[in-house]
Amino acid sequence: MKLNLIILILLLFSSSVYAQSVDSVKSIRYTSGTRGGLIKVEVTEDRMTYKETGFNQIEDEFEISQEDWLKFQKIIQSIDLAELHTLKSPTDIRAFDGAWYTWIEIETEDDTYKSQDFDRGRPMKEIEPLVNLIRAYFPK
């Protein structure tokens, strides 16, 4: 009986710590660049900023709904933030300028988690839903 109680307490504690880390997300940053341009996106609880330099000069900022922010949080729940920096890119085309280098950062109240670089449009499978959601808001 004591063993069951201890297991239950550990499960409850571990799930509450995990939930706190997702609730504490302050911002999500997406950066992608090459020698000729740069795209920087920042998503917060109520807005998204988009800045593109190079051939296209675009700056945009707009509000996002609480529903949109919850979509981001739901996806982040599926990512092990502590392991984000260890995920390996499935391709390496950016090494010879065949693709833009890209990375994401997730800032929480306690820390900032950064992915390794990956080829634009070819993220690691663990972060692909997050990258696709961010890119869905890009200006057309």
Q: What would you note in describing this structure?
A:
- The chain is an alpha+beta fold.
- It has one domain: Mago nashi protein.
- Helix content is 31%, strand content 31%.
- It is built from three helices and seven strands.
- Strands 1, 2, 3, 4, 5, 6 and 7 form a seven-stranded antiparallel sheet that branches.
- A hairpin with a 3-residue loop joins β5 (101-108) and β6.
- α1 crosses α2.
- The radius of gyration is 17 Å and the shape is globular.
Label this structure with key terms.
140 residues, Mago nashi protein, 3 helices, globular
Low-confidence stretches: 12-20
What is the tally of helical segments?
Answer: 3
How many distinct domains?
A: 1
**Overall pLDDT level:** 87
Tell me, what's the shape? globular
Report the sheet with the most strands, covering strand number, pairing sense and barrel closure: 7 strands, antiparallel
Q: Report the CATH topology name.
A: Mago nashi protein
Structural class: alpha+beta
- What is the strand content? 25-35%
Report how far the terminal alpha carbons are from each other: 60 Å
CATH architecture verdict: 2-Layer Sandwich
SSE pattern, N- to C-terminal: HEEEEHEEEH
User: How many beta strands in the DSSP annotation?
Assistant: 7
